[in-house]
Amino acid sequence: KLNDVAAIGSGKFISIGNLGTIIRTEGSGNTNTIIDNQYSNNLIKITKTPDGKLISVGQYGIILISSNEGISWQKINTQFNETFMDVCFINNSVGYIISYEGKILKTIDGGFNWTQQNNPVISNLFSISMASENVGYISGNRGLILKTTDSGNNWQRLSPLTSVNIIKIQAVDENNIFCLNTNDSLYKSTNGGNDW
């Protein structure tokens, strides 16, 4: 099963999935190459930094980084063993990972070292989206939405908009946010998550 895909250039894509599956696609889908990364962890999400580096995360705390369009991958060793659900970068250096178990991690060196950030709640987390260097949003279990205004150092809980899990959140900018729950209901806020 494939779980996510990232565009890496004109007609080039990297797909990631269960059991460590990484597939590199070229020629607008005409050529698929299975990459042997030597790991069997389920890979859940992948993102690309502005300078083209690929970061994939998943089961049992796995973090893989590629600097050559997915041809080869480096495993980043951390003390974390959670299931990483999402990863995002706001520039080439600063990025975030969230886990199903409720951890929020931050890197300031392009993904090679990660530190745990403050999380005011104990809850499953599913999706993260940074609107700017300072402002970002996380969605989670039973309508949970967290917001940071200080680059992820602190997160505050916003009033829940639903009792259903919010599986995806996307910030267009600091004020305009969309989120999707497991019942396929789509919500929009135009004032930074204060109202939906």
Alpha-carbon Rg, integer = 16 Å
Number of helices: 0
Mean pLDDT: 94
Strand order of the largest sheet: 1-2-3-4
Order of helices and strands: EEEEEEEEEEEEEEEEEEE
Strand count, sense and barrel status of the largest sheet are: 4 strands, antiparallel
Name the shape in a single word.
globular
Uncertain stretches of 5 or more adjacent residues: none
Strand content: over 45%
Helix content: under 10%
**What is the strand tally?**
19
Alpha-beta content class = mainly beta
Q: Could you tell me how far the N terminus lies from the C terminus, measured between alpha carbons in angstroms?
A: 34 Å
Quaternary structure state of the chains depicted: single chain
Description:
The protein is globular. The termini are far apart. The chain is built from no helices and 19 strands. The strands form 5 sheets. A 4-stranded antiparallel β-sheet has the order 1-2-3-4, with no helix packed on it. A hairpin with a 4-residue loop joins strand 18 and strand 19 (186-189). The chain has strands at 2-9, 12-17, 22-26, 31-34, 43-48, 54-58, 63-66, 74-75, 84-89, 95-99, 104-107, 115-116, 125-130, 136-140, 145-148, 156-157, 166-171, 177-181, 186-189. The model has no long low-confidence stretch (mean pLDDT 94). The chain has 196 residues and is mainly β.
